[in-house]
């Protein structure tokens, strides 16, 4: 039974409520796996790496050496891909321009602001949803451009506080209302048995605020930590709370430019039976009545033939820094793959303008 359904993608907050249409409930649930995979944050985040007592020249320390009135602008590009064998389809390509200013610098840390300057989208990548997504992007451009996140860091650059969180939450509620109001198909989903209350329950102002600062936190996630120069690989067996995983980490430093780079590449291995359980849980959460029964039957009958391998959930981080601790370039990609089919989400952040050393 083919039913056209829209489910919120796991990164809906970061792309301001982007909805991706699927050809059937089964495929939608399959491609939503990453929203419920138990991914250990202490493994995924390189910011948890402990300092190692080695010779000073064998370590890289990520430390902010900023000055009052320093300014950096960045372009953030977010793209989403689906692949099946050799066929690849780009489903989304959204760009955001942001600016970071240092308002004050003291011995205890920095007072800074992060401002949204522009949004753009490749409508060709959005395919059949380009009209709807275009309306969403126009709403965001009108509402969000100019929004400023005021924040503080300690003396090494770790973010310690968002100063205007209440103001951001108030604005987020307004943006959220406008975005949901631009979704003409939401009411029609309930008519065919889709539990729209469950779909929208997790989409709130707090999630919007999180989306405002997601990339900001990425840019500063390693500050205050030391990393051993070189390459390491490790394997962790599955436990009751974590999947089996392989982790690769590499750190490089250029002795001439003093720039440095960090790479973390992690594969988590998700057993085939867990995939079945995840899909069943999503059916129970988002569907009801005859629709839920029909989809569950379709899933049970088709699972054995269509899912024959375990899933691999890959997380890849690359980040490079200027000598003064300002991020230069960042790539973060998540890929979920079963056999030769799957999806990939990528964030690419690169500096655009740089004004530093503006001493009093």
Q: How is this structure best described in words?
A:
The chain is of the alpha+beta class and 360 residues long. The protein contains ten helices and 15 strands. It has helices spanning 25-31, 41-44, 123-126, 130-144, 165-181, 186-191, 196-201, 205-220, 272-286, 289-306, and strands spanning 5-8, 19-22, 59-61, 71-84, 87-106, 109-121, 148-154, 159-162, 226-228, 230-236, 244-253, 260-270, 311-321, 327-338, 341-355. The protein has an eleven-stranded antiparallel beta sheet with strand order 8-7-6-5-4-15-14-13-12-11-10. A two-stranded antiparallel ribbon has the order 1-2. A two-stranded antiparallel ribbon has the order 3-9. Helix 4 packs antiparallel against helix 5. The longest helix is centred in the C-terminal third of the chain and has 18 residues, at 289-306. The model is unreliable at 1-55 (pLDDT under 50).
What tags apply to this protein structure?
360 residues, globular, alpha+beta, 30% helix, single chain, 11-stranded antiparallel β-sheet, 38% strand
Set down the secondary structure blueprint:
Blueprint: E1 5-8, E2 19-22, H1 25-31, H2 41-44, E3 59-61, E4 71-84, E5 87-106, E6 109-121, H3 123-126, H4 130-144, E7 148-154, E8 159-162, H5 165-181, H6 186-191, H7 196-201, H8 205-220, E9 226-228, E10 230-236, E11 244-253, E12 260-270, H9 272-286, H10 289-306, E13 311-321, E14 327-338, E15 341-355
Antiparallel strand pairs: 1-2, 3-9, 4-5, 4-15, 5-6, 6-7, 7-8, 10-11, 11-12, 12-13, 13-14, 14-15
Helix pairs in contact: 1-9, 4-5, 5-8, 9-10
């Amino acid at each position: 039974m083919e039913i056209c359904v829209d489910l919120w993608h796991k990164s809906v907050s970061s792309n301001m409520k982007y909805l991706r249409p699927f050809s059937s409930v089964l495929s939608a649930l399959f491609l939503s796996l990453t929203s419920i995979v138990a991914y250990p944050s202490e493994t995924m985040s390189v910011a948890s790496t402990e300092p190692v007592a080695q010779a000073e020249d064998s370590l890289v320390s990520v430390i902010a050496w900023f000055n009052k009135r320093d300014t950096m602008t960045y372009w953030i590009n977010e793209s989403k891909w689906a692949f099946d064998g050799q066929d690849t389809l780009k489903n989304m390509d959204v760009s955001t321009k942001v600016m970071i200013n240092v308002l004050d610098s003291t011995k205890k840390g920095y007072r800074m602001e992060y401002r949204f300057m522009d949004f753009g989208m490749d409508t060709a990548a959005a395919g059949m949803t380009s009209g709807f997504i275009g309306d969403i992007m126009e709403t965001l451009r009108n509402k969000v451009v100019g929004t400023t996140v005021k924040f503080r860091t300690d003396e090494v650059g770790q973010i310690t506080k968002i100063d205007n969180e209440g103001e951001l939450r108030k604005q987020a509620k307004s943006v959220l209302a406008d975005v949901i109001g631009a979704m003409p198909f939401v009411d029609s989903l309930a008519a065919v048995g889709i539990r729209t209350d469950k779909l929208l329950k997790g989409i709130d102002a707090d999630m919007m605020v999180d989306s405002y600062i997601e990339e900001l936190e990425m840019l500063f996630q390693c500050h205050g930590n030391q990393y051993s120069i070189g390459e390491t690989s490790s394997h962790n067996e599955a436990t009751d709370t974590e999947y089996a995983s392989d982790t690769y980490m590499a750190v490089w430093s250029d002795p001439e430019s003093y720039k440095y780079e960090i790479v973390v590449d992690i594969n988590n291995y998700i057993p085939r039976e867990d995939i079945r359980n995840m899909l069943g849980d999503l059916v129970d959460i988002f569907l009801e009545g005859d629709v839920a029964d029909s989809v569950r039957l379709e899933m049970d009958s088709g699972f054995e033939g269509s899912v024959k391998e375990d899933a691999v959930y890959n997380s890849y981080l690359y980040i490079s820094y200027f000598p003064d601790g300002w991020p230069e370039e960042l790539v973060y990609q998540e890929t979920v793959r079963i056999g030769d089919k799957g999806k990939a989400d990528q964030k690419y952040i690169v500096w655009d303008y740089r004004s530093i050393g503006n001493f009093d």
